[in-house]
Amino acid sequence: MGNFQLEDFVAGWVGGAASVIVGHPLDTVKTRLQAGQGYRNTLNCVFTVYRNETVAGFFKGMSFPLASIAVYSSVVFGVFSNTQRFICQHRYGDSNHASTVSDLVVASMVAGFVSVGIGCPVDLVKIRLQMQTQPFIQANINLKPQAAGFPVQTAYRGPVHCISSILRKEGLAGIYRGAGAMVLRDVPGYCLYFIPYTFLCEWFTSDGRRSPSPSSVWIAGGIAGAISWGTATPMDVVKSRLQADGVHLNKYKGVIDCISQSYHNEGLKVFFRSMTINAVRGFPMSAAMFLGYELSLKTIRGVQADINP
Q1: Total domain count, the chain
Q2: Using one digit for the tens of pLDDT, what is the confidence trace for 49-81?
């Protein structure tokens, strides 16, 4: 690819790190709600986590996402931007030509497919670490209680132990548990992520400016994130349930079985559980992601221009 540019990957890494720091507490609440652990609503989940685990409970499992989601975002933004330039180069003879909606759709879909290879193991470990202190309420298995009430046992000592345990018990396929649901979530999800962002940035950018202002990037990125995460909720619920499955017992055979059991036991509304928190969480996370990406990209290109005037 003649127009391959490495700086998109570097800027994506910075954006990914920013989004994790901003969004992890709400991500923990989202995961607990989706996995079906008996919380009445979002506020009940927040208060229960705080009461049982203090503020630290909201940041459970954050070290691994901070290290890995930065890499994941680096790949997503790098693949999307370079694919977009590759398409424009071949269609119009200019890699900097304005992209059409169809160009953006193809670039978004490619980014979505590629992202699953890295994102699925990252999400799996994050969710297992977030879920492992949950009581065995629905496990239906005999365990010796550690204290009065339901036992709370730690399955994994950390990210490395989590990965090694999954590989030992479930093999390589275990690391990619929920990959099918993630493809169904991310391929359309990234279309509803990058396309709204691109057009909103153009709309917010006044005539005469070469690039959108930081405030425009923040708003456009936040709106795009809210749209993308809100609409991705049904398949995100399925993915989270498949990946949380296996901490205490295995309930689901695959995507279809998870959808069937969830619908049969909890009705259609289960697939829209946490839609509000997904959209609310999507705004600051994506705003931080795009702002970190755009500012880093501008800084890198500015430094390169100074070095090579």
Answers
A1: 1
A2: 888 888 888 877 677 777 788 888 999 999 999
Q: Is residue 1 part of a domain?
A: no
Mean pLDDT within 275-281: 85
SS (H, E, C) 241-295: HHHHCCCCCCCCCCHHHHHHHHHHHHCHHHHHCCHHHHHHHHHHHHHHHHHHHHH
The tokens of 27 are what?
Answer: 């991500």
What does the alpha-carbon distance between residue 218 and residue 286 come to, in Å, rounded to a whole number? 8
CATH of residue 22's domain is 1.50.40.10
Higher pLDDT, 247 or 151: 247
For 217-234, give the DSSP string.
HHHHHHHHHHHHHHHTHH
Per the model's pLDDT, the better-predicted residue between 111 and 240 turns out to be: 111
In a domain, 147, yes or no: no
**pLDDT confidence bin for 137, thresholds 50/70/90:** very low
Residues 151 and 162: their CA atoms lie apart, in Å, by: 20
Domain containing residue 263: 7-137+155-307
Cβ neighbours of 10 (radius 10 Å):
18
| Domain assignment of residue 60, yes or no | yes
- pTM for the complete prediction? 0.78
Asked if the structure places residue 143 within a domain, the reply is no
